[in-house]
Amino acid sequence: MFDRSLPVVTGDSAARPVHAIRPAGLAPLLAALPQQQAAWLHAAGFAARAQELLLLPGEGGVAGAVLGLGADRSPCAFGGLANKLPAEGTWRLAPGDFDAAGATLGFLLGAYRYDRLKAARRAPATLAVPGPEQSHARAVAEAAAVWMVRDLVNTPANLLGPSELADAAVALGRRHGAAPIRIEGEALSVAYPAIAAVGRGSERAPVVAGFTWRGSAATDSSPLVSLCGKGVCFDTGGYDIKPSAGMLRMKKDMAGAANVLGIARLLMEADLPIRLAVRLGCVENSVSGRAMRPLDVVRTRRGLTVEIGNTDAEGRLVLCDLLAEASDERPDLLLDCATLTGAARVALGPDLPALFATDEDWAGRLLQEGMAQHDPMWRLPLWDGYDTWLDSPVADLNNISSKPFAGAIVAALFLRRFVAPGTPWVHLDIYAWNDSTRPGRPEGGEAQTIRAVRSAIECQLIVRHTDKNVPVT
Predict the structure, then answer these.
(1) Which of 36, 209, 273, 367 yields a CA-CA distance of 20 to 30 A from 294?
(2) How far is residue 317's CA from residue 150's CA, in Å, rounded to a whole number?
């Protein structure tokens, strides 16, 4: 259900060319094109501005196209092509001053549309890519993972509850030969009491789901990567109920879990020589006579008691049990993703996830790969001076701060309380949504950081545990 075919084919010799150029390359292109096409470009005033597209005439009608890149060197420079080019036939990108694999990625990211419940107005154009080039295969795999994440986030909450999200996770793992994890009912209440407390108010019971996997070349001593995701399939806020406007996008509150599945998919498809553990807290935060109340105290897997200062700060309760279990396994990297705080969006906006880390090497590598992969994030501090803001007079800690500041930092400090000391831990506070359509980024659910995390693991973890000087690809 969440694995679809992309509009891409391999090696079509009849594909029409798209010449993607920058302003400096316009004159050489005009000199190389047939006279009729060059005259057409000149008469139309084509200037190679970013996203500028002009179809080229030929004997059979449309013979090709010219795309302006301007100064944009990101994959999104090609993000408008799939919806602007004629859908009939196939298209290929002529060589030019751009990264060819990045162009393939951008084309496919822009071709996405959520059409499960409403037919698309038109089919996207189809891109032909060179067959044997590994870089293009990687771009296609990354685009497919992004499509999966977007589909998960875009699916309405009545069609994707905790059980359905758990099913999607288990199905992904099984497709790659992983051992499934699915825990619910009384076993979940015992093993993950904080998750059970969050899900108690909903008729749709909470589920902890995921899988364990190892690459074909991995051994018992290979690096262990542990991923945890917040899978709140809908968040009313509980008794601290959100206003109606605040609930409009709460189907996306499971985007942390969706992005974790995107990361896991990329790692498994690359068959990296690692061990992988994936855990998702799949739950719904609802209002009922069974729901947790403000000033309730709940016990966690770690044994710490938490006073509920606000029932709308439920995501950290979902993650704390998962992080406690995962960190006790002593992973080489523990990473979680969550749509955790509005404060992160106020600080960094929708396109820049907040990164928190206990390990300087991992923080540096993730920031570096985020820029290199055009999948950026920005680091915020785990500021110890704010840790006492979580103090509670009746429990080990409160789930919210006593002060109205630094909400993203305080949420990360809450999570850190449950991570075993010495664990290389990374927390990503993401938005996972496009508020409007832009090239390569259609309105709706979005995958954030998954390509950067995959690349960072290749560059950091694999090299650290082998004698090779290059990452495994």
Answers:
(1) 209
(2) 25
Interaxial angle between packed helices 134-154 and 255-269, expressed in degrees from 0 to 180 and rounded to the nearest 10: 160
Which residues have CB under 8 Å from 229's CB, separation 6+?
A: 256, 257, 258, 259, 260, 261, 278, 279, 280, 281, 336, 337, 338
If you count them, how many residues does the chain have?
473
Percent of the chain exceeding pLDDT 90 equals 92
Please, what are the domains in the chain? 8-130 (3.40.220.10), 142-464 (3.40.630.10)
Compute the distance between CA of residue 105 and CA of residue 212 in angstroms, rounded to an integer. Answer: 29
Per DSSP, the three-state class of 452 is: helix
Tell me the C-alpha distance between 115 and 121, whole Å. Answer: 10
d(CA 280, CA 300): 16
Task: Give, for 214, the enclosing helix (H) or strand (E).
Answer: strand 207-214
The residues assigned a catalytic role are: 242, 316
Predicted TM-score (pTM) of this structure: 0.95
Asked whether the beta carbons of 127 and 90 are under 8 A apart, the reply is yes
Please, are residues 255 and 344 in contact by the beta-carbon 8 Å criterion?
no
Q: Give the C-alpha separation, 423 to 328, whole Å.
A: 9
- Tens of pLDDT, residues 437-452: 999 999 999 999 999 9
pLDDT band at 2 (very low <50, low <70, confident <90, very high): confident
Q: What are phi and psi of 447, to 5 degrees?
A: -90, 125
Could you read off the pLDDT of 105-140 as tens digits, one per residue? Answer: 999 999 999 999 998 889 999 999 987 667 889 999
**DSSP secondary structure of 292-331:** --TT-EEE-TTS-EEE-S-TT--HHHHHHHHHHHHHTT--
- pLDDT averaged over the chain? 95
Please choose, from the candidates 147, 116, 5, 162, the residue with its C-alpha nearest in 3D space to the C-alpha of residue 446.
Answer: 147
Residue with token string 């000033």: 295
Instruction: Tell me the C-alpha distance between 333 and 32, whole Å.
Output: 52
Upper half-sphere CA count for residue 420 (Cβ side, 13 Å) = 14
Question: 3-state DSSP call for residue 136?
Answer: helix
Nearest Cα residue to 293 out of 360, 221, 201: 201
Cα–Cα dist 125/364, whole Å? 38
